Amino acid sequence: MSNPILERARAHGVTLEMNDQVAVVTLSRPAKRNALSDTLIEAIRDIFQNLPQEARAAVIAGEGEHFCAGLDLSELNERDAGEGVYHSRSWHVALDAVQFGKVPVVAALHGAVVGGGLELAAACHIRVADESTFYALPEGTRGIFVGGGGSVRVPKLIGVARMTDMMLTGRVFNAADGERIGLAQYLVPTGAALDKALELAKRIGTNAPLTNYALMHALPRIAEQPADHGYLTEALMASIAQSTPEAKDRVRAFLKGKAAKVRKAD
Q1: For this structure, is 131 an active site residue?
Q2: Residue 111 — very low, low, confident or very high, per pLDDT cuts 50/70/90?
Q3: Are residues 102 and 234 in the same domain?
Q4: Is 119 a catalytic residue?
Q5: Residue of 57, 60, 202, 225 with fewest CB within 10 Å of its CB?
């Protein structure tokens, strides 16, 4: 049976395929370096608001030589202030559907991760970059300002000073420096980002769903709360998570020596 949401998304440059229990969402406008049109942003929103029931994690990747080169400037229409606010807020809704959706999302980055592409990557929970990746926020040199949540999400990854530098000077970070400052958590050889992202997503998908949900929805909010509020939120979330039957089964398995122990990394 055809799925009208997926058919519409495909027509606007986004595809969804299931790999086991991982939803692989691919930006598919390679001739445009996967630049973000309004219809593509709407497709991302619709997909993440309607993920298949069996999905336990998701990966976002880009077709062709680049993850995403940012906003499609051919669609940058003249808007009055009110229209500009509405437009920006529509992007916020779409990228919130990624960050605060049903499942954790891993970004597989390569080539350009620029402007709106970096805003999209920052909405994901884990970012895997290959050695071809480069990052930039050229909005400052083009007379505009980030509008897809970048001013909120990117400083949480790299700090206000580094984002200010990127926008004031047009500074471009390569893959190694991007991983060093926090734009990605993993750095892999060129061409290996998608495989690594899938590996991580499949591992994440084996976690207890409520624990994953707490990490997506509670942890970022706890980080922004005053300490006494955060401690209470943590206590409430911990008690809820550990009360689920799946959590109890996992603890029993560990106590009986049936669960893998944490070991030193290679």
Answers
A1: no
A2: very high
A3: no
A4: yes
A5: 225
